[in-house]
Amino acid sequence: MIEHRTFKRLEIPLPLKMRLLGTGHYVPIKALTKNVSLEGLLIEAQVFLEDGSLLIWKGEESVKLDPFLVLDEKLIELDIWLPPKSEKIRATGRVIWYDLGSKGTSYYFRVGVSLEKMGVLDGKRWVNFVKNIVEAEG
Predict the structure, then answer these.
(1) I want to staple 47 with a disulfide (CB 3.0 to 4.6 A). Which of 10, 76, 102, 107 is the partner?
(2) With contact defined as beta carbons under 8 Å apart, do 4 and 77 qualify?
(3) CA-to-CA dists, residue 1 to 4, 5, 108, 124, angstroms
(4) CA atoms of 57 and 134, how far apart (whole Å)
(5) pLDDT per residue as tens digits for the range 70-89
(6) Domains and CATH numbers, the chain
(7) Taking residues 8-22, what's their average pLDDT?
(8) Distance between CA atoms of 34 and 9, rounded to whole angstroms?
């Protein structure tokens, strides 16, 4: 496998909500990042099996995972909360890859996202956040 990453990945769990765009499925799904970079992020959400269907938490309720499994270069809208003040930024990203797997008796859904669009202020906050973490790690 050829590595295409330009920027270092930072192992940091950031809370976020993601919404599929252009699919008619706009329910926000809560998840966490596993790692981030200036160009993208890896998102992981917990999945569970109920009555023969794979479900993912959307917040208070759960939703079927099926719409996510047919993602192929789909756009998603992301609300990401940055520490330490829990400032929310909004971004649009493109799903590059996804993976559904299991860890013992539980399931996970991972999504690799390339960040494509942010507002000017949100973009500056993102760049500053990532660069500050890189500098802190030395």
Answers:
(1) 107
(2) no
(3) 9, 12, 23, 32
(4) 31
(5) 655 588 899 999 998 899 99
(6) 15-137 (2.40.10)
(7) 86
(8) 10
Distance CA 18, CA 98 (A): 14
The token duo for 118 is: 């942010």
Alpha-carbon span 133 to 4, nearest angstrom = 21
- The three-state secondary structure class of 106 is strand
3-state secondary structure of 58: coil
Show the tokens assigned to 13: 């769990």
Maximum pairwise Cα distance, the chain: 48
The number of residues in the chain equals 138
Record the pTM: 0.82
